[in-house]
Amino acid sequence: MEGNFPEIQLEIGKYVENFVLWLNDVLEPFFDFIFLIASRAILSIEAGLMFLPWWVFIAIIFVLGWRFKSITAGVLYAGFMFLVGTFGLWDVLMTTIAIVLTSVITSLLLGIPLGIWMAFSKKFSFVMRPLLDAMQTMPSFVYLIPAIFFFGLGNVAAVFATLIYALPPVIRLTDLAIRNVDSEVIESAESFGSSKWQMLKKVQLPQALPTIMAGVNQTTMMALAMVVIASMVGAGGLGELVLVSINRIDLALGFEAGISIVFLAILIDRVTGGVAERFQKHRRAD
Amino acid sequence: MTVKMRVEHVSKIFGSKPKSIIPKVRDGMEKDQILEETGHTVGVYDASMDINQGEIFVIMGLSGSGKSTLIRCLNMLNTPTDGSIYVDDENIVEYSPAQLKKYRQDKIAMVFQHFGLFDHRTVLGNVEYGLEIRGVDKEERKKISMRNIEIVGLKGYEDKYPGELSGGMQQRVGLARALANDPDILLMDEPFSALDPLIRREMQLELLDIQERLQKTIIFITHDVNEAFKIGDRVAVMKNGKVEQIGTPEAILESPANEYIENFIADIDRSKILQAEHVMIKPNALVSLKDGLNVAVREMEENGISSVFVVDRQRHVQGIVTIDDAVNGIRLKKSLSDVITTDIHMVKKDEYVNDLIPKALDSKYPLAVLGEEDRLEGFILRVHVLAGLVGDDIEENQTSTQAVTI
Predict the structure, then answer these.
(1) Which of A253, A283, B124, B201 is within CB 3.0–4.6 Å of A245 for a Cys-Cys bond?
(2) Which of residues 23-82 of B touch A (CB under 8 A)?
(3) Among the listed ranges A225-234, B231-240, B269-278, B290-299, which one has the minimum average pLDDT value?
(4) Within an 8 Å CB–CB cutoff, is residue B329 touching chain A?
(5) Are B317 and B369 a contacting pair, CB within 8 Å?
(6) Sheet of strand B3-14, all strands in order from the earlier edge strand to the far edge
């Protein structure tokens, strides 16, 4: 037929697949190394959390809520965690927190320097922008596939997929925050003869911190969302139970796991939000 | 008077190829035309000025006149497209990055229009910043900063954050921060224009006070003519990126270089800028107490005046004697000291004319103007002070009435 699309075939998916396979081949020692470190990190965080007596953990949650929000918030969040325990999901909760923490810490370690670099280099920013757009709009399930290639099934693959998904907000907001520091404040730091490093350390980063903290908050929330999806590549934790309950059509289990994730999300969002506000405290209203 | 900073033919043009624009401006192309045709903005063109050690040099102009661009060239926040800036005979435009850093740390500090404070640091932390950058140790830093916080009158506020202070207080922090580095040169970019008028006046006076004590070289930017003439030892007027006139406030008032400046200074309140010494008349005739009445009468006759000041050997004013009193005195065989009037007002030579109005209204005689050690330097006719109230021109009155009234 005339109206049909001509027979031109560009198998871009194949090329990408080949590229990833090639990458996997060439960088195998590197990925093995990453795998080792990441699995160690997750395991030690998990072990650390498990080692804590349950009431110490709940007390820590209470103190966090109290310091960064209010005493009622502290009681509420501690209550949430206690409830999750009563569902019989305590250990699973610890696994989820361990994966989220590992992903978030890695995201920040990578994302903040990348954001700073973007703020200072137009060229780098020009390259990064479309990449970040793609990272944020690509359906998150797609990241699971290379994760399996590189790291096999399990928690490390989950952290990798989560990392790619959760990284953009902290990079973007760090970049934005540093570029948005008031120009007169920059000029005044410059007029005193600050070096680039002094300027960054003493003025730009502290001034940018409230916005960066907003990025941390977003990154953490996205990491939590992704950890559930990442259960498809064998991540343990609450997400795994959600997946199991879908397969078994087990509404009771699904609800318990689901509501536990909601509790955790509220806790993480409010506490990181509270930290961000703390940094904002002395700022002018304008 | 030594020249602290010499600005020579400095131009600053913004755009992708700024150097290529210089010849166009030289050929007389207008700023707007250049922007339209080439996309370049002419910030400053061919500005030259000498700034003396210890003076307050004001650069005045409306917004867009290039004054803020120019002041930012003086500490290289803007790199001039063309020209040289000599500070203590070194061309700062050719400084290496390391030299420039040192210049900014040691010699020059800046106060900003919107304060440019670090709102994540306390008042003390802000004032300490420059010292911290220079690597001054903690104890010393705190000592110097506290002293400067006290100078600007913020003692007790050192642990507050800038966000907790009013605008006027924030600018005091800005000033203390600049002073803490003990710079030779202080750049002030419209420092008081974000403040309300009452606070602004207070800050102006305080700046003059501080300057009297510290004797810095201050370069002060403003769009406010009254402010410029009040605090400036000399004033440069800028328009469209070019310097139109440089001179003392009195010189500019007396002979504006062109119509633009004439218009600029038209609505200025001269009585707030001119000081007693600018409107006073140097006395042609003076009488000393021991001279006696006959000498007094002869002096008045010769000079065609109706009263004369009586002084002692150190030129300290003893009083005034009028022609009527003198003639009466001679008839009644009195001495000069019997007939002089001591009921006269004396003013310092640096008092503003505006402040003399109450005294002029109160007195029947000319005001005596005292200089160093209270010696008589001149006198002011009441009409010269009061004429301002009805809008007459002081200079005209001065010449026409000099010989008649006294």
Answers:
(1) A253
(2) 72, 75, 77
(3) B269-278
(4) no
(5) no
(6) B41-52, B3-14, B82-87, B90-91
Q: What predicted TM-score, i.e. pTM, was given to this entire model? A: 0.74
Are the Cβ atoms of B112 and A206 closer than 8 angstroms? Answer: no
- pLDDT for the residue numbered B277: 80
Local structure of A248: helix, strand or coil: helix
Q: How far is CA A44 from the centre of its chain?
A: 18
Asked if B183 has any chain A CB less than 8 Å from its own CB, the reply is no
B314 band by pLDDT with thresholds 50, 70 and 90:
confident
The answer to whether the CB atoms of A193 and B102 lie below 8 A apart is: yes
- For B128, the closest chain A residue by CA position comes to A192
- In sequence order, what are the beta bridge partners of A79? none
| DSSP-H helix ranges across B59-183 | 67-74, 97-106, 123-134, 138-151, 167-180
The answer to whether A184 faces chain B, any CB pair under 8 Å, is: yes
Nearest CB to B116; choose among A185, A193, A209: A185
Q: Give contacts of A 209-248 with B, CB under 8 A.
A: 209
Query: Cβ distance B170 to B115 under 8 Å?
Result: yes
Whether B116 and A206 lie within 8 Å, measured CB to CB = no
Q: pLDDT tens digit string along B381-398?
A: 887 777 655 544 444 444
| The pLDDT value given to residue B390 | 54
Mean pLDDT of A23-34: 86
Mean pLDDT of all residues belonging to chain A: 89
| pLDDT the model gives residue B260 | 87
- Do the chains contact at A187 and B162, CB–CB below 8 Å? no
Model confidence at B108, pLDDT cuts 50, 70, 90, reads very high
Pairwise CB contact (< 8 Å): B104 & A193? yes
ipTM over 0.85: no
Tokens of A112: 């903040």
Residue B291 has pLDDT above 50, yes or no: yes
Look at the block and give the residue holding tokens 């007002």: B345
- Nearest alpha-carbon partner for B351 in B333, B363, B368, B337: B368
Residue A120: which of A39, A18, A218, A205 has the closest Cα? Answer: A205
Of A185, A190, A195, the CB nearest to B118: A185
Shortest CA distance from A280: residue in chain B: B120
Q: Specify the pLDDT at position B396.
A: 42
Residues of B in contact with A191 (CB under 8 A): 75, 77, 104, 108-110, 187
Work out the angle between the directed axes of helices A12-26 and A28-51 (0-180°, nearest 10): 80
Residues of chain B in contact with residue A189, where contact means CB-CB under 8 angstroms, are 118, 129
- Residues ≥6 apart with Cβ < 8 Å to A99: A42, A155, A158, A159, A162, A227, A230, A235, A236, A237
Non-local CB neighbours of A219 within 8 Å, separated by 6+ positions: A104, A107, A108, A111, A166, A167, A169, A170
- Give the residue on A whose Cα is nearest the Cα of B175: A188
Angle, nearest 10°, between helix axes A90-120 and A28-51?
A: 130
Compute φ and ψ for A112, nearest 5 degrees.
-65, -50
